[in-house]
Design brief:
nine-stranded mixed beta sheet; alpha/beta
């Protein structure tokens, strides 16, 4: 039995909670034992909102089966846990994860990995030094629409990629998300999803060129457009904008053009458009990446298998790529060598 303590009970904490409940109900040998948040007494009665809604209204949640804490040290002292799941502000990820790994816990940590690449590297080093599993919640690696794209690219079933465009956007979040030193702004907190997809599916580019703008006082870059420059000449761009107010809602999408067709993902549908045939909608699992990544993580622990699908080293590269984009944006769009940033 893998016993889990969940730290942080905001929107993503609620999302993880729901998925642990589902996994246990499905017979996976996992038990969510404890939940910790400094505001736990408020949050256990409060609906939380985010870009993608959780499935359970707070009025329907029964937390009586879980030990609730407002202090992490007390939870660790009182409970016998195997895994700590962190859904905390980004600036807290590295110091808390490194400490937990050193104490002998496996750690699942929400994205982005850390506020700076040096802190992310410390997390990787701590996991290796203490021989514990660390996984970062870059959930799009387990999201069916993006897995489908990765498969088409890898198998070259539509030929080589000619161009690719990714977009992610919605309303401005509140609280610590718009504090640059805590979240890194939209570029790090939201845009890193598409950055992770680009380097996971296409590999690291040679250069990046980013134009970006700060809109919200005190935030980082809130609107970003980045070009990723590859040796083979494919045209790749990703944009993020978390200043889309009113009734816009939330959007994540991509459009990828191949030699023999194109894929368009929008409104949770992947449309496949072969050049020489009728278009069709791809058949995809209805499960979201949040569920599938936690299932993968827990099953790897149960089976004693190495985690190959989202290694901390690979998610660190996404953080490094974002830092290259930030440097380019600071220089008004100048090309930045990715190799020099990684060195």
């Amino acid at each position: 039995m893998v016993k889990v303590g969940l730290v942080g009970f905001g929107m993503m904490g609620h999302m993880h909670f729901e998925n642990y409940v589902r996994l246990a109900a499905e017979g996976v040998d996992v038990q969510l034992v404890a939940i910790c948040d400094i505001r736990i007494e408020e949050l256990k009665y409060e609906n939380v909102t985010g870009n993608i809604a959780t499935d359970t209204d707070h009025a329907e949640m029964d937390l009586s089966a879980y030990h609730l804490y407002d202090d992490l040290e007390k939870m660790l002292a009182d409970e016998s846990l195997d895994v700590i799941d962190l859904t905390l502000p980004t600036d807290l990820h590295a110091p808390i994860a490194c400490d937990l790994l050193a104490r002998g816990y496996h750690v699942f940590c929400e994205k982005p990995m850390a506020i700076h690449t040096s802190a992310g590297q410390q997390m990787v080093d701590a996991a290796h030094a203490h021989q514990k599993q660390l996984m970062i919640g870059q959930c799009l690696r387990f999201w069916p629409a993006y897995e489908y794209l990765q498969k088409v690219v890898t198998e070259q079933s539509l030929g080589q990629v000619i161009s690719a465009t990714f977009f992610r956007g919605g309303a401005t979040p509140k609280g610590w998300f718009v504090e640059k030193e805590r979240s890194g702004g939209a570029m790090l907190d939201m845009h890193i999803h598409d950055v992770d997809m680009i380097q996971w599916i296409f590999g690291l580019p040679e250069h990046v060129s980013s134009i970006a703008r700060n809109v919200v006082p005190g935030s980082g870059y809130d609107v970003v457009s980045t070009n990723y420059i590859y040796a083979d000449g494919k045209v790749v761009n990703a944009q993020v904008d978390w200043t889309l107010q009113g009734d816009y809602g939330f959007e994540m999408s991509y459009r990828v053009n191949f030699e023999q067709g194109n894929l368009v993902f929008i409104n949770d549908i992947v449309q496949v458009n072969p050049n020489n045939g009728a278009g069709y909608i791809a058949e995809l699992s209805s499960d979201r990446g949040y569920y599938r990544q936690l299932r993968y993580f827990i099953e790897c622990l149960i089976e004693g298998q190495p985690m190959l699908q989202a290694t901390p080293e690979s998610t660190l590269r996404s953080l490094q790529l974002v830092e290259a984009e930030m440097l380019s944006a600071d220089r008004a769009g100048d090309k930045v060598s990715v190799a020099q940033v990684l060195a």
